[in-house]
Request: fold
Amino acid sequence: MTSPHDMENRKKKSAGRRPGTARKTHGNASPGAGRKLLLKKQIPVQGHGLEADQEILAGVHCIREALKAGKRRFHRIHLTDTSPRDRLRTIVEQAAELNIPVEVLSSEALDILCPDVRHQGIVAVVGPLPLIRAETALSEMDKVTGGSFIVILESMEDPHNLGALIRTALCAGVDHIVLPRDRAASPTPAVSRASAGAMEHASIWSVTNTTSLIRSLKKRGFWVAGLDADGEQSVFQADLTGDIALVVGGEHKGIRPLVKKECDFILSLPMARGVTSLNASVAGGIAMYEVLRQRNDARKPQ
Reply:
């Protein structure tokens, strides 16, 4: 039973605070060092659906890298921890600086927002990743001098392979990544997760006609190399310096015949024994790093 003395103390503590307000929110500025960050817990599951131009990024790496890249529109961020620490705290503080709403939901609500995904206790409702039209990119490329490295990912269907290739491309110094607009995996949140957020930083071109793009690149002085198991020349024997476009085929169909016909040469990876081919992301990664090696060697003083 509550005593009159306790009741009086409660009234004094609550005086001056409007009913229904949280004791502490992230506000519009980053909390100072050493101050405890406390967010209001919200239990409702309903009312957090997505609109047509929205998608869900899940997990620490994807959201952190998307915030760094600054390409996407962030509608809001949800997390389950009312007192976020470490990596989550950094994301919440950056969101506050950018005036991005942050709401704390139950784990059940986050599971409904992104079913069958390991969200690590944080999701973001964002706009789609903006892609660059290949035609626009080509006109801008005319202003750039020096060796450029482009990777064309042909008919890639598996989001995990696509994500792995995009991550490797950034590590190997690829300047631009070309993705077909149709009949191939698109840069979805699943691809971003597979790339550990690297996709958020990539320069990705969207192209309708790959063969037409290759012809345009060759007119601008690019050599176009296709990577295929039937290639007669080893990737380690070819000259891959200068302006180079590397075409990596999909998991099942490889490089389409019309696209392969436009390539200046077809390269393969040597196989020691038994297996006749590699996973598309592994083969593409090896070839990209061979391009990087040759380009680095070419820059060294003789």
Notes: DSSP finds ten helices and 13 strands in the chain. Residues 156 and 250 are 4 Å apart (CA to CA). The longest strand covers residues 74-79. Residues 10-35, 43-47 have pLDDT under 50 and may be disordered.
